[in-house]
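Q: I have 262 residues here and want to know how they pack in 3D. Can you give me a structure?
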Amino acid sequence: FAGLQVFFQAFCNRNPLVRLFDLSPRDVHGAIEEHRITHLSATPTFFRLLCSDDEVHQEVLSITLGGEGMGASLAKTALSRTFPNAKIRNIYASTEAGSLLVADGDEFQVPDEFAKSIQIIDGELAVHSSLLADSLQEIDLQEFFCTGDLVEVTSEHPLRFRITGRRSDWINVGGLKVNPHRVEKAISERGDVAEVRVFGKPNSVTGNIVCCEVAPHNGVAFDVAALKQALRQQLSRHEVPQIIKVVQRIETTGTGKKKRQH
């Protein structure tokens, strides 16, 4: 839906569109300069890979993110370094309710008009049924609809929070739940990692095992053994990835999000 919105907005304004999907970060940088792109709309995964290089684009004036958790490191440093003149808009939207909240970083604040319509229930973002699409309001739903997005509350009054992941992304390892976003955060805090993808792989004994793909910064020699050793000090045993693969690019879906199913 976000892609359709971007397409029709550009179409109605008679703006040229430049397709950047499936290009390597180097080719994306080249296309931005060649076509003098001023507005970029994509997922945080796309921007993290793009910002891992030392390129700077002065002519980009607007950055719009959505579809995934943004992450503090991307919000505070990487984007402003790569796109110093761009206004940053991080949009929270859901298929059921459409666009709801906008922030200039990774922390969303619920405006007064939605104070009674947006709640946190058991760590999950929930929206009042009145905010849902008309077709869903005709169905006999509960008063609040749980979106499946897990959050970290940073303020109660006013309500502010960060998106930490999707409940459906969690990995079941022998009855123990692993939040892949928590593991990714621990790995991405290392200075030699540009991007990381944590996912579950079916296993006949435990149901699933935790695996990950790591894309190092350009030219960095990556030590898998050292990463595992460090993670054993930070995470519980069942959270530490059993398989770590070094890749050049992180595999994404057609909409630019990380693939969680192997």
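Q: Anything worth noting?
A: The longest strand covers residues 144-155. The CA atoms of residues 10 and 17 lie 7 Å apart.
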